[in-house]
Amino acid sequence: MNAKKKTQTARDYRPGISMGGAQGEAFQDPWKVERIALFRDLARKRNWSMETDPLDNRITYRDSTGNHVVHDLEEKIVGDSGSDREIQMMLDVAGLKDWKTLMFNGLGDFVERAMEAAIVRGFQVEPENDAQKEILETVRSRLANSLSESAIQEETRETESPRETPLPEKEDLYPEDELSLN
Question: pLDDT by residue (tens digit) across 113-145?
């Protein structure tokens, strides 16, 4: 009989220390358990699927279509394509992790869209280099113009006089035929 030989992978040879026996199999870092529970809740609310890889400390999310994938690598969150949907997913995960300031890496188009979405959602954005500083200035300028246009439109709505409706005639206020004093 030929027994199938298990193929060894790079993961099998990664250096590390773990608890042995049944205790080691049952032990999980409490922070990691709490983190995974929070992320499972987020995935459920957003209708995402979620896979965990304990060897890489990776959590992978897929949206309901399966076309948009985000990987939480603990200190970094990455997407497969950098789509707008993935940007929103990455920001959801960053928010749950309580990150306040974000840095981005990737192509200029992705960085610009991600910075804008992050600012709109209330994150602080820290540019990684001079090119990103220029992108950030462009995004902030565009958002400032957009906000000022919104404020002008809102102010215009508030200052427009409402349509005046004429008051009813005095006789309509007190119809005599409905009330009789006898």
Answer: 999 999 999 999 999 899 999 999 999 999 998
> How far apart are alpha carbons 170 and 177 in whole angstroms?
14
CA atoms within 13 A on the CB side of 151: 6
93, two tokens: 């995960």
Determine which helix (DSSP H) or strand (DSSP E) holds 143, and give its type and residue range. Answer: helix 130-159
Tokens linked to 54: 């304990």
Asked whether 78 and 94 are in contact (CB, 8 A), the reply is: no
Single-letter residue type at 101: T
pLDDT at residue 153 in the model: 63
Q: Which residues contact 124 (CB under 8 A, 6 or more apart)?
A: 100, 101, 102
Extract the tokens encoding 14: 């990664």
Please, what's the largest Cα pairwise distance for the chain? 115
